[in-house]
Amino acid sequence: MKDLEKLGHLLHHWIEHNEEHAETYRAWAEKADSLGKKDLSAVLERLYHETKNLNTFLEEAKRKLG
Length: 66
Fold this sequence. Notes:
This protein is mostly helical. The protein is about 90% helix and about 0% strand. It is built from two helices and no strands. The model has no long low-confidence stretch (mean pLDDT about 95).
């Protein structure tokens, strides 16, 4: 497999993997909130948003790869 083709596969994988993690962070943020752990919930919610933001960079890389 050529390097750029491999990178394309990796970017696709990383984006999907990050999406799965982001949803897990959000679910645990909701659980923490329901258990009265507001500070913990806020950190997990921030982690969710930062992971989604990271995916914008991965998507940009994928577009630039062509």
